[in-house]
Amino acid sequence: MKRSRPERPASTPLAAARAHRLELALVALAAFAAFGPALRGRAFLYDDVPLIRENPYLHQGLRTGAAALLRSGYWQASAGRAAPVAEYRPVLMLSFLLQAATTGFSVPAMRLGNVLLHVLVCLLLWELFRRKLGPPAAFAGALIFAVLPVHSEAVGLLSGRSEVLSAAFVLGAWLALEDGRRALGFSLYAGALLSKESSVLFPVLLALDDWTFRGRRPWDEESRGLHGALWGMTAAYLLLRFGVLADPFRGGRPYFSGRLAAALTFARFAVRHYVWPSLSGLSLCSDYSRPLIPDANPSSPSAWLPLAAWLALFAWAVRSLRRREPWAFWLIGPGLFLLPTSNLILPLDTIGAERFLYLPSVALAAGGGWLYQRLRAVRPRAAAAALGAVAAFYIAVLARRDRVWLSPESFYRAQLACNPLSAGAAGSLGLAYLQKGDAAHGLALLETARALDPADPAPDYNLAKYRLSVGDAPGAESALREALRRDPSSSDAWVLLSVVEQRNGRTEPAAAALRRALTIRPDDPKAQFDLGRLYWLRSERERAAVHWRRFLELAPDDPDAPAVRRLLRSSPEP
Length: 574
What we know:
Layout: H1 13-35, H2 48-53, H3 62-70, H4 76-79, H5 90-103, H6 107-132, H7 135-147, H8 152-156, H9 161-178, H10 182-193, H11 202-214, H12 224-244, H13 259-280, H14 301-322, H15 326-335, H16 362-378, H17 380-401, H18 408-418, H19 423-435, H20 439-452, H21 458-469, H22 473-486, H23 491-503, H24 507-520, H25 525-537, H26 541-554, H27 561-570
Helix pairs in contact: 1-6, 1-7, 1-17, 3-5, 6-7, 6-9, 7-16, 7-17, 9-10, 10-12, 11-15, 13-14, 14-15, 15-16, 16-17, 18-19, 19-20, 19-21, 20-21, 21-22, 22-23, 23-24, 24-25, 25-26, 26-27
């Protein structure tokens, strides 16, 4: 009788490992296909200009620059006392310092850093979903997250790295603490806190995770040590903010006049400008400045409908979470990280931004992974086709969206297209045209910006720069005086006014303008250089040396630095 051969197992550990590696490779390739085209851009855009390109601390080298970044706020280097918001993100800025010290101020290299971090987040999310939802859902959820068009701003804008880096730290800490590696988990949580403020909600997320998947509460005996340590780290972080920042909870000029207006308007805004773009990949926008989003009218019944819907959904989710239903965890847990930027807790100077959705969109990815897993159980081919179609559609949408990040003109044109009422977008596009030599379009856009927001000093400042470049010193002075009337805390305007004063032969008013600039922003390298030069020309060598030495500390790679060093060496020490 012929012996029958034993059946081989349907799946072996080796085959499973190969399948996992293939899934991870596909997720990484999809992320590169989605966001790789943005690497062609070579210009610093929007907040990247003051925070990175013009940040003196990033030009000082690793040792000196790291020390400066650790003891200063996110905006202090570029704005000094006029910093618009209070943020402390030294780990984020250290990542840029490391790149500046190794690859220079190369936009493609820095943007590649964003893309690689996004890939890392996707891989961490795959592992998290594998543990919480199952292998099929892990692949689908991570793939959807990898290609979501709403992530374009977080990945494409260099300063959007705060979202991606903090998400990587949060997910890494989550996985490490699940594995019992507390030292690693606490270290990663510290990195998250020092990358973006919203990471303070990680202990709440972990408490919800413990309750949902293990039935444990933070005060239970087996949990209290871990959660006590996390809350202790959070308290230490808040104390550190008080030590570094003069006003640790300032959010800029409040966008809303009251909490009710904020709640009603944000509820409607979230439906139209968060949920719909996240699901469809359409109607993406990088500028929601006033008056594009009008305040909801409390006397209108329709104003209350979105808020009522959100409250009903939240109440349902809370009730389900009490019964430890996973769907409620995935809705509430990632959504927590949207609270600090929602205007519901702290007043901010913006109603929202797409980059704020980076970590909260884990909820959408989890939902997509769960749906795929359910469909795959009954119709595997249909599930694979649907997942492939969704990924392909999102990548196609991003192929168009990634063009926004290629140049200042493309970026600000896109901003103005989605928000024609934005004075900032009109003025920035006008400046971009002026820098390219298109004076007609540039000046017209600056006038448009002035009309849209008569209180904004930026159009007059940019107009002054242009007029000075074409030799119109009186016109430049007039525009600068107007800019400073609107915002006396602009150190850049005071520095430019000193140039005008020098051209008019008024050295003492020029020196006074520079001293005013340095009271606002002591670490302004141009102000330090110009004031040192004025003192040198007036034969006040000792005073000149003080400012020039500070200039060399702040901008050692500046083109004028070698000449300054030679002059200082030729001058005897006092």
